[in-house]
Amino acid sequence: MSAFQKETVLSVRHWTESLFSFTATRDPGFRFQNGQFAMIGLEVEGKPLMRAYSMASANHEEALEFFSIKVQDGPLTSRLQKIREGDIILVGRKATGTLITGNLIPGKRLLLLSTGTGLAPFASLIKDPDVYENYETIVLAHGCRQVSELAYGEHVVDGLRNHEFFGPLIRDKLVYYPTVTREPFRNRGRITDLIASNQLFEDIGQSGLDIETDRIMLCGSPAMLEELHAMFSARGFVEGNHSQPGHFVIEKAFVER
Questions:
Q1: 230 and 204 Cβ atoms separated by less than 8 Å
Q2: Is 255 a residue whose pLDDT tops 60?
Q3: Has residue 256 got a pLDDT over 50?
Q4: Rounded to two decimals, what is the model's pTM?
């Protein structure tokens, strides 16, 4: 258990029947880069039951925040979804992950493409002042099946827009693009299709993909990641990693689905 820190749950909010977020205390020695993940979990029968979770909080915030799906028969999330204020969770002492700006070649527009709880690392990144310093435009696209599943992302973006410091900073730089696939909504369709057809860019009044200026981060369903990886690679975009920055990066560590 020495590889984990015990943290206290500060708040829990259930957004839908299948999605919830929670905050917890943060050990002063726990360091991470915005966009990274850590192993978190619960002690079950004296043993740690852990899964990879991206921090939805930024590295300058005092508390940790996580965004999770509920899996009724999931080994961890069947238990985690029942946590309450004051409960104890375990947090791994080391953060890691590929969704950091250092893994990208410098560019002008940053596309953050997510589905479901894949929004979490981008909730952290859009709170990073350096991101706004390094990019002229940040486009946060979040795809879900139903409108209700967009609630957490809308909450995060609205909080930033009304924030004393971030509000003026992001007003002309952050473009939020939510889309759903199974209900009427102002934006409809899968992110993959919306990019392939150029509809996403038309909707936000911007030019289409440009390898010279666009840098991309992906986090979401395996199908989305596979399809976009193939699409970007076919257009000459190179995947980046810790040893060699590229045009796009993918997070391959998933919470149970």
A1: no
A2: no
A3: no
A4: 0.96
Please say if the pLDDT value at position 191 is more than 50. Answer: yes
SS (H, E, C) the chain: CCCEEEEEEEEEEECCCCEEEEEECCCCCCCCCCCCEEEEEEEECCEEEEEEEECCCCCCCCCEEEEEECCCCCCCHHHHCCCCCCCEEEEECCCECCCCHHHECCCCEEEEEEEHHHHHHHHHHCCCHHHHHHCCEEEEEEEECCHHHHHHHHHHHHHHHCCCCHHHHHCCCEEEEEEECCCCCCCECCHHHHHHCCHHHHHCCCCCCCCCCEEEEEECCHHHHHHHHHHHHHCCCCECCCCCCECEEECCCCCCC
Which residue ranges form the domains of the chain, and what is each CATH number? 4-96 (2.40.30.10), 101-252 (3.40.50.80)
